[in-house]
Every structure is written in structure tokens, then in C-alpha cells.
Amino acid sequence: MRSPAGFLLCSLLLVAPHCTEVAAQEDKPDPKNPCANWMGGAPGYPGHNGLPGRDGKDGKDGLKGEKGEQGPKGDQGEVGLPGQEGSRGFPGHPGLTGMKGEKGESFFVYRSAFSVGLKERVPHPNVPIRFSKIYYNEQNHYDASTGKFLCSIPGTYYFAYHLTVYLSDVKVSLYKKDKAVIFTYDQFQQNNVDQASGSVLLHLSSGDEVWLQVYGEGNNNGVYADNINDSTFMGFLLYPDLDVH
In the structure, what pLDDT confidence band is assigned to residue 125 with cuts at 50, 70 and 90? Predict the structure, then answer.
């Protein structure tokens, strides 16, 4: 009879290989859980957030949406700068003919002028010189029989004379209403023909007379005229007195 100690030893020897095999199988690491055969520790803290990934590619445009409702009217904006001038348009059609106007007052041109010349030597001093050669006297305001111009249109007049001097001295005056206005004197030179002239502006009233005459004694009566030498007298209206007409 075997002793208990020997039986226990034999049992251990039989069980040992089996335990070794089981241990070997249990010691083989699990590829999915390599730490499964070790004593597990406490769970770790969550890791930090990773960096954001890159933006993906833009997707394709979707279908056009329906038209929305009209929004409220906005505030009026500021006035803008003037724009550039546009091109010229085409001419319009002629308008309708207007109504005939009322007849206006007739326009009257006031005329008064004369131009006369001497036919022969002056016969006497201190009387009007009668210029009987008529160059112009359409209004008949100059009277050849008296040698005087009679004013019919009140206004401003211009008078002038050009006299040939021969044989003696000449002293003449232009008269207005029996009063000498200007004097002209020319001293005759022996064996020579000379000239004397004068001009003036005068305001005349209706009925005023203007004429020329030799002033002084007979030795100043050298006014002369022939077929090649003239002595002339003239005058004309510059403008009438409109407040009178």
C-alpha cells in the first residue's frame, strides 16, 4: 500500500503537464486585446480634439427657388449728379398757324433836306442870299424866291455851306430867326480864287427860318459862282422831336 504522500506526488505529476498546456494556451496574446491577460488599470482621460479637416469641394448648384414676395419700399436715396447731355433730337413738326394780329400803327419816316447852289454873284449885302440852283428840295422846305429854309418838322438839323471867294473879301453869317449864329471870314488874295466854308448843328422849332447873307458893307461881298466855280448851301434833319410827333 502506497503512502498518501506518494499518491499526492503522483497526482501532481499527472496534472502538471495539463496545467502547463492550459497555461501556455492562456498566455498566448490576444491580437484584439493584447493586455487582456494582464491586470487591467483605470480607464484613461479622453484625448484632445483633432485639427479640423480640409473644406470639401463645392457641391453643384441646386434648382432655382421660387420667386419671393416683394419687400417693403426703402427710403429715398440722395439726388445723383446731373448726367451727360444727350444727343440732339430730331426737329419737331411745324406748329399750327396762329391767329392774325391786329393792325399796328403805320411807321412814318420824317424827312426834311435841301441842297442848293448859286448861279451868279450876290447882288447886295445884308439880305438873304438866294441860291437858285436846286440840287435837292423834294420836301420844298427851302424857298428859292426868298433864300430861306422854313422848318416844318421840329428837331435837330445840320447846316453847311461852301462858298467860292473872288474879287473881294467875304464875310458871311448863318442866321436863325433874324439872329446871326456863326460867322465866316475869308480875305481875298489878288489873282486867286479862294473858298470859305462853315457848318453847324441847330435845334429848330416849327416855323423857324435859316438862311445865309453877306455881313457888313459891300466890300465884303466876294461870294462868287460861274460855270466852273460853285457856292453851295445845304441842310437836313438829323432826328425829329418824337415827344412832339
Answer: confident
C-alpha cell at 39: 491586470
- The CA angle 109-115-142, to the nearest 5 degrees, is 75
Whether this model's pTM surpasses 0.85: no
The number of residues making up the chain comes to 245
Alpha-carbon span 224 to 164, nearest angstrom = 5
Measured distance CA(112)–CA(202) in Å, rounded? 14
Q: Domains along the chain?
A: 113-240 (2.60.120.40)
Q: What is the tens place of the pLDDT at every residue in 69-100?
A: 888 888 888 888 888 888 888 888 888 888 88
Question: How distant, in Å, are the alpha carbons of 15, 155, 193 from that of 152?
Answer: 178, 9, 37
The whole-angstrom separation of Cα 152 and Cα 241 is: 12
Q: Give the closest residue to 197 by CA, choosing from 161, 226, 229.
A: 161
Quote the distance between the C-alpha of residue 139 and its chain's center. 48
Q: In what helix (H) or strand (E) does residue 4 lie, and over which residues does it extend?
A: helix 4-27
Task: Give the count of alpha carbons within 13 A of 184, CB side only.
Answer: 25
Q: At residue 18, what are phi and psi to the nearest 5 degrees? A: -65, -40
